[in-house]
Design a protein that fits this description.
- By secondary structure, the protein is an alpha/beta fold.
- It folds into four domains: about 150 residues, Alpha-D-Glucose-1,6-Bisphosphate, subunit A, domain 3 (Alpha-D-Glucose-1,6-Bisphosphate, Chain A, domain 3); about 110 residues, Alpha-D-Glucose-1,6-Bisphosphate, Chain A, domain 3 (3-Layer(aba) Sandwich), CATH 3.40.120; about 140 residues, Alpha-D-Glucose-1,6-Bisphosphate, Chain A, domain 3, CATH 3.40.120.10; about 80 residues, TATA-Binding Protein, CATH 3.30.310.50.
- Helix content is about 40%, strand content about 20%.
- A five-stranded mixed sheet has the order 1-3-2-4-5, sandwiched between helices. Strands 7-6-8-9-10 form a five-stranded mixed sheet, sandwiched between helices. Strands 12-11-13-14 form a four-stranded mixed sheet, with helices on both faces.
- Helix 10 packs across helix 15.
- The longest helix has 18 residues.
- The radius of gyration is 23 Å and the shape is globular.
- About 50% of the residues are buried.
- Bound molecules: 2-acetamido-2-deoxy-1-O-phosphono-alpha-D-galactopyranose and zinc ion.
- The site of 2-acetamido-2-deoxy-1-O-phosphono-alpha-D-galactopyranose has 12 residues, from loops.
Length: about 525
């Protein structure tokens, strides 16, 4: 009998659960952790292929399920510049994950190797990390099996936030180039971020502490580490109070805390005892999402979500560019999804006079659209986002000779921000520092930030339907083209409400359909959402 293919032999320890179909979605593969061993093994194989295809550039593998409950886990690939995996390779990931047997897997692997013209002799290089979930170490062993059988050179970065792994991946692939991104280590990340934070702060003062809820995830220990590199409050630095950073009991991850809890429930974590007007923020389980919130003096709760962070960043960076004398040379634009509050979109176009682009849900779409601007600010309403600077913008910011002390000061701050902001992907830690810098420069508290515009009341619902795949959208998910006739019914309903807007789309991460509605009053938004939900059911 012919000896078994090594890929198939190693796969025998990680059998695919029968009758399961996997799909590489907006967040990679994500599900109950006990189902993931075969998926992670196969993703490891794909990482090796991707690295060989890209001439031995380093590919990242992150094991995390972000804001999902503790019993879930997930895995996703990071491309060389720290971006999400290129879309055409998502299909290859899905193909490998669904190969029905060890033998079928090795055949699919060989077929991809030849179809994609991948040269086996090129050295494959992979870096990986995980969040604090209990299933992480077990899934890492499945990944290691794949990296070893595919003769891949790898580095295990153990526990990292998702954005830290994106940062390290980009650093490794830019070493010795004109686009060098930083030192490719966790310490390098802290050093770069802290130095930029100090430079961007300048002589400005922080108005009291910020309390950060770390979702009992990996963001807790990493934020504590980052704080060691920042000036202390007694040295005039920012006081950061770290809460919900218990990673010893993994069942507490994302439980009654974290960015997703705050956004979904529109209230602070029950453990929060914040004083009126105190700045509070929440990270999600892998620290790529950030939510701000506060209670005003009447104890009413106000959320400062991704739309607010985007508008604040666009306002500040637009002003800095103008004040630095680069207003004509650097155009700022904002990218949102259909979930962005309509009031934020009006504020950007009418008050800030900046262009807005709407893309489908999923950071890869937003990121891609943002790279078309000189400075592209993108955030999902749920707090995932960042700012990307084009090469040309970086060059102009780097070379410009200021014509006055005022220009020099704005330019210094702008330069510091290009280093502070994690341009690879949304990063809650660097976004947190960005917000704090902006508030300090403007001498704003959360209330002044909140007063920039008034959110339209809105409602987000989740409906389970027999087959969510029949819901097909167009126009950046704002309109349904199927099932036929449904959009006309939605339009007729929307027309009856002042400032009404509503759309329906199938979730990419859950087996459900989401209904979003906004209108002039809370009662009307709820009513519109309920009526649209009835149409969909
Ligand atoms: P789906 O399930 O496709 O709506 C959710 C979020 C997205 C994005 C992805 C990936 C909402 C309404 N949707 O997508 O914004 O973050 O998860 O995690 O928040
Ligand atoms: Zn996340």
């Amino acid at each position: 009998m012919a000896s078994q293919h090594p890929i198939a032999a190693a796969s025998a320890k990680y059998p695919k659960p029968a009758e399961r179909t996997f799909q590489y979605g907006t967040a990679g593969f994500r599900m109950k952790a006990f189902l993931l061993d075969s998926v992670v093994y196969r993703v490891g194989l794909l990482a090796a292929l991707r690295s060989r295809k890209l001439n031995g550039q380093v590919i990242g593998v992150m094991i995390t399920a972000s804001h999902n409950p503790p019993e879930d886990n997930g895995v996703k690939l990071v491309d060389p510049m720290g971006e999400m995996l290129e879309a055409s390779w998502e299909t290859h990931a899905t193909t490998l994950a669904n190969a029905s047997s060890d033998q079928a897997l090795s055949e699919a692997y060989d077929k991809l190797t030849s179809d994609l013209n991948i040269k086996r002799e090129i050295k494959a290089r992979v870096v990986f990390a995980r969040d604090t979930r209990a299933s992480g170490p077990r899934l890492v062993s499945a990944l290691l099996a794949a990296l070893e059988v595919s003769a891949t050179e790898y580095t295990d970065f153990k526990l990292l936030t998702t954005p830290q792994l994106h940062y390290i991946t980009r650093c490794l692939n830019t070493v010795g180039t004109p686009y060098e991104y930083g030192e490719p280590t966790e310490q390098g990340y802290y050093k770069k971020t802290a130095a930029a934070f100090k430079a961007a702060t300048g002589t400005k003062k922080f108005n009291g502490p910020v309390t950060v809820d770390c979702a009992n995830g990996v963001g807790g220990p990493k934020l504590r580490e980052l704080i060691k590199y920042l000036p202390s409050a007694s040295e005039g630095g920012l006081e950061i109070k770290v809460v919900n950073d218990n990673v010893v009991e993994p069942e507490r991850l994302n439980h009654q805390c974290g960015a997703d809890f705050v956004k979904t429930n529109q209230r602070p974590p029950p453990s929060s005892h914040a004083a009126p007007l105190a700045r509070c923020a929440s990270l999600d389980g892998d620290a790529d999402r950030l939510m701000y919130y506060f209670n005003d003096s009447d104890s009413s709760f106000h959320l400062l979500d991704g739309d607010r962070i985007a508008t604040l960043a666009a306002l500040f960076i637009g002003d800095l560019a103008r004040n630095a004398g680069l207003g004509e040379k650097i155009k700022v634009g904002v990218v949102q999804t259909a979930y962005a509050n309509g009031a934020s979109t009006s504020y950007i176009t009418q008050d800030l006079k900046l262009p807005v682009v709407c893309t489908p849900t999923g950071v890869k779409h937003l990121h891609h659209a943002a790279t078309r601007f000189d400075v592209g600010v993108y955030f999902e309403a749920n707090g995932h986002g960042t700012v990307v600077f084009s090469d040309l913008a970086l060059k102009r910011i780097g070379k410009y000779e200021p014509q006055s002390p005022a220009q020099a000061s704005a330019l210094d701050t702008l330069r510091a921000l290009t280093a502070l902001i994690n341009q690879t992907v949304g990063d809650a830690l660097s976004d947190l520092l960005l917000v704090e810098i902006i508030l300090a420069h403007k001498a704003w508290g959360p209330q002044e930030w909140h007063l920039t515009y008034t959110d339209l009341p809105n409602r987000l619902g989740r409906i389970e339907v027999a087959d969510r795949n029949i819901f097909k959208t167009t126009d950046a998910e704002r309109k349904l083209e199927s099932p036929p006739g449904v959009q006309a019914q939605i339009d007729a309903l929307v027309g009856k409400y002042k400032n009404g807007r509503s759309f329906v789309r199938a979730s990419g991460t859950e087996d459900a359909v989401r209904v979003y509605a906004e209108a002039a009053t809370k009662g009307e938004a709820d009513d519109l959402a309920a009526k649209v939900a009835d149409v969909v059911r």
